[in-house]
Design goal:
This protein is α/β, with parallel strands linked by helices. The protein has 14 helices and twelve strands. Helices cover 36% and strands 14% of the residues. Helix 12 crosses helix 14. The structure holds pyridoxal-5'-phosphate.
C-alpha cells in the first residue's frame, strides 16, 4: 500500500502493485486479453475492451499518477501519442503558447498538424516571463513547457508560468521527460498535465516506445480518458509491463547517471575546443536557481557546442562508448546530433534561430563508469585537436 511518508525511492517499489492481490505475484501480471467476459449487460464489469481499459496498463497508469502526485495517469503508444492526444483537448481557433526549443516532434505536431485543424500557436522564449505574458491572446488555452528544454537545457519557472496561465484561464502542460518525477513534479507547482516520453528515463533500457500523461483533477481525467479511448493510441499490456519494470530502478539509474553527467559537464567546460556547455547544474547557468527550486537535481542530459559540423563528424567518429543514436535516458550513454536527429523536423533557419547549430551535440549519460566515459570523451576531443584548429577543412 502507498504510504505517503515514504520517500520517492521507496514508493517506486512499495506501492499498490507491490504484489498481486490474487496470487501474490511480485511482478504485475501481463493481461494480453483484448476483451473481457461480461456476465450481465445491465452491469458491465470493470473492464470490457482493452482499448478502454486494461489491468496491466492500468497498473502503470495508477503508478505514474501516484509518482507525479496527480489524479489519474494515462499510458500511450509513444510520447508523441500522449502529447498529441492531450492537444486534442483544444478546439478550432484555440491558441497555444509553446517553448521555442521544444522537442522537434512536438514542434512538427503543432506547426504542421494542429494548424490544419485551426489550432494556432506562438513559439516563445519561455524563460522570459514578459515575452510569455505579452504573447498570451484572448484565445490562448494552453501554455506548453519543456523544462529543461531540449536540447539547450533552458529552464522555465513552472510556478510563474502557471500563475500567468491561471490568470488567463489557460491550462499548463509540462513535458517532464528530461527530469522524470524522481527529480521534478510539475503538478505540485500547479501544472495541469504532465507528459512523458516514457521511452526515455522512465523505461530506461532502450527497449520500448511509450508515452504517459498525468492530469491534476477529475475533470481533466474524464476528458483525457474520453480522448484516449476515442483516439485509441494506447500502450500495449506487454509494453506497459516493460515500463513498470524500468520504473523500479528509475531512482538509482538517474542518481548514478546524474553524478556522472555532473563530472562530464565540468570536464567538458574546461576544454578549449568546446565553445559552450549547456547544463543546468552549473552555478552560472542562467536558470540554475530556478531549477534548484523546482527540481531535485540537474539530471543526466547536457549539450555542448563544437565549432562546426566537421568537428562534430570528427568527434562522433572517435568517441567509442556512447551509442550514437536518436533518444536519451537509457542505461547506455546516448550521443545525439540534434540538427540531424531530434530537431531534423525543424527547418534549418528555425533551428539556427533557436541556437540549435550544426556544432551542437547532446549527450544523455548512462551507467558506464564515469572515469571511462570522461577518458573516452577526452580521447575524441584530442583527436580533433591533433588535426589542429580551425576545424573547418578537417578531413575525417
Ligand atoms: C522531450 C521529449 N518529449 C517527447 C518526445 C517524444 O516521445 P516518443 O519518441 O516516445 O514519441 C521526445 C522524444 O525524443 C522527447 O525527447
Amino acid at each position: 500500500m502507498t504510504d505517503h511518508s515514504h520517500t520517492f525511492q521507496t514508493k517506486l517499489l512499495h506501492n499498490k502493485h507491490k504484489a498481486d492481490e490474487e496470487t501474490g505475484a511480485v511482478s504485475v501480471p501481463i493481461h494480453h486479453a483484448s476483451t473481457f467476459h461480461q456476465t450481465d449487460f445491465d452491469q458491465p464489469g470493470r473492464y470490457d475492451y482493452s482499448r478502454s481499459g486494461n489491468p496491466t496498463r492500468e497498473a502503470l497508469e495508477t503508478t505514474i499518477a501516484n509518482l507525479e502526485s496527480g489524479f489519474r495517469g494515462f499510458a500511450f503508444a509513444s510520447g508523441m501519442a500522449a502529447i498529441s492526444t492531450s492537444f486534442m483537448l483544444l478546439s478550432q481557433r484555440d491558441h497555444v503558447l509553446v517553448s521555442e526549443d521544444v522537442y522537434g516532434g512536438t514542434y512538427r505536431m503543432i506547426h504542421d498538424v494542429l494548424i490544419r485543424f485551426g489550432i494556432e500557436h506562438t513559439f516563445v522564449d519561455m524563460t522570459n516571463l514578459e515575452e510569455v505574458a505579452t504573447a498570451i491572446q484572448p484565445n490562448t488555452k494552453v501554455i506548453y513547457i519543456e523544462t529543461p528544454s531540449n536540447p539547450l537545457l533552458k529552464i522555465t519557472d513552472i510556478q510563474a508560468v502557471v500563475k500567468l496561465a491561471k490568470a488567463n484561464e489557460c491550462l499548463t502542460f509540462v513535458d517532464n521527460t528530461f527530469m522524470t518525477p524522481a527529480l521534478q513534479r510539475p503538478l505540485e507547482f500547479g501544472a495541469d498535465i504532465v507528459l512523458h516520453s516514457a521511452t526515455k528515463f522512465i523505461a530506461g533500457h532502450s527497449d520500448v516506445v511509450a508515452g504517459l500523461a498525468v492530469v491534476r483533477n477529475e475533470q481533466l481525467a474524464e476528458k483525457l480518458s474520453f480522448l484516449q479511448n476515442s483516439f485509441g493510441s494506447i500502450l500495449s499490456p506487454h509494453d506497459s509491463w516493460l515500463v513498470l519494470r524500468g520504473l523500479k530502478t528509475l531512482h538509482c539509474r538517474l542518481e548514478q547517471s546524474s553524478r556522472s553527467a555532473f563530472r562530464l559537464a565540468h570536464a567538458l567546460a574546461k576544454e578549449p575546443i568546446i565553445e559552450e556547455v549547456y547544463y543546468p547544474g552549473f552555478s552560472f547557468h542562467p536558470g540554475h536557481s530556478t531549477h534548484l527550486y523546482q527540481a531535485a537535481g540537474p539530471g543526466a542530459v547536457l549539450s555542448f557546442r563544437l565549432p562546426d559540423e566537421n568537428a562534430v563528424r570528427f568527434f562522433t567518429k572517435h568517441v567509442q562508448l556512447p551509442v550514437y543514436a536518436v533518444s536519451l535516458g537509457a542505461v547506455e550513454s546516448i550521443l545525439s546530433y540534434p540538427a540531424k536527429m531530434s530537431h531534423a523536423s525543424m527547418p534549418s533557419e528555425e533551428r539556427k534561430k533557436r541556437g540549435i547549430t550544426d556544432g551542437l551535440l547532446r549527450i544523455s549519460v548512462g551507467l558506464e563508469n564515469a572515469d571511462d566515459l570522461l577518458q573516452d570523451f577526452q580521447n575524441a576531443l584530442a583527436a580533433i585537436k591533433r588535426y589542429d584548429t580551425p576545424t573547418r577543412g578537417l578531413q575525417v
